[in-house]
Amino acid sequence: MTQGTTSGPLGLDLLLLEILACPDTHHSPLTVDEAASELVCTTCDRAFPVRNGIPVLLLDEARQRGGTGTATP
To answer: Which SUPFAM superfamilies match (predicted)?
Structure first.
């Protein structure tokens, strides 16, 4: 019996958002930054992009957010 998925922020399934974690060794939960279209690690402050409703949880694709932000040319 399939009930259809409930779409949450960034078009992600709400059940998926509950189980997603940072792929680094600490496996901390991720929070949603809708304005930036990213999932953010609660421990290391890495931001993982969400592209076309698909979270890209690759450490090489993540950016380090930092408290004040960094300027990009």
So the answer is: Trm112p-like (SSF158997)
Q: What is the mean pLDDT of residues 32-51?
A: 96
Half-sphere exposure of 61 (CA within 13 A, CB side): 13
Tokens 């060794």 found at: 25
Contacts of 52 (CB under 8 A, 6+ apart): none
* CA 72/CA 31 separation, integer angstroms: 23
> Quick one: 29 exposed, middle or buried, by C-beta within 10 A (0-12, 13-18, 19+)?
middle
> Domain 9-64 - what CATH class?
mainly beta
